Amino acid sequence: VIVNHMQPFSLKLSLHNGVLAPCNNHIRRRLSDMASMYADQEAVQELLQHDDPVLYEVYQYDVPEEPGQLLVGTSVIHPGKVGSEYVMTKGHYHAQRDTAEVYLGLLGRGHLMLQAPEGDFRSIPFERGTVGYIPPYWAHRMVNTGNEDLIFYVVYPANAGHDYEAIARRGFRFLLVDRGGVPTLIANPRYGQHV
Ligand code: PAN
Ligand code: ZN
Fold it and tell me: How many angstroms separate the alpha carbon of residue 91 from the centre of ligand 1?
């Protein structure tokens, strides 16, 4: 008996620019959408006086958010820094904490930062061909440490949902900053103290 009438489908993913077609959910995140998340608030204000740049984009093909379904999408993080901190995603826990995710690097260079609720932290270097496995319960954020777009493909349970609140409030334990051209992890001086 067929209980699920959803039809099979295919999408085209551009391996050059990450665009997914068709795409029914295109998200653009600007600096003003995550201004409080960068450590150097003077640099944020300085940048916002001139411009409100798009920092990253997500192309996703939404399907019903029910158990058993999978969401697929690409993320394109543009290169750059806010102060000495590299451009990054907001980062989140899945609202449904016991859901995992897979990231596949397609273009560019970066680091996948992961943090468990107890504070355990990992940073995984990412490049074309890297497969990152994000286990259930781990918060995750991608950082573009290169000078071109960082593009990666993701697959995760459609009922996972996103909890941005905890990361917006506490941040990650470490920041990824440019120290003389070398991506370097430093302790986050504001960890646990965001507004
Ligand atoms: C990814 C992320 C995407 C953007 O699809 O949602 O890279 O990052 P933020 O959602 O943290 O802004 C994913 O992890 N989905 O679950
Ligand atoms: Zn996720």
Answer: 7
The whole-number pLDDT of residue 1 equals 63
Place of tokens 């440019």: 178
Whether residue 4 has pLDDT greater than 80? no
Q: Are 56 and 151 a contacting pair, CB within 8 Å?
A: no
Residue 5 has pLDDT above 90, yes or no: no
- Judge if the beta carbon of residue 76 lies within 6 A of ligand 1: no
Q: Are 193 and 173 in contact (CB under 8 A)?
A: no
CA distances from 129 to 71, 104, 106, 188 (A): 20, 6, 6, 29
Residue 58 CB–ligand 1 contact under 6 Å: yes
The whole-angstrom separation of Cα 174 and Cα 45 is: 22
User: Is-contact 62 71, C-beta < 8 A?
Assistant: yes
Q: Would the pTM count as exceeding 0.85? A: yes
CA of 116 to the centre of ligand 2 (A): 13
Whether residue 31 has its Cβ less than 6 Å from ligand 1: no
**pLDDT tens string 78-120:** 999 999 999 999 999 999 999 999 999 999 999 999 999 998 9
Alpha-carbon distance 53 to 32, whole Å? Answer: 8
What pLDDT score was predicted for residue 130? 98
Query: Of the bound ligands, which one is closest to the alpha carbon of residue 112?
Result: 1
Residue 48 Cα to ligand 2 midpoint, Å, equals: 27
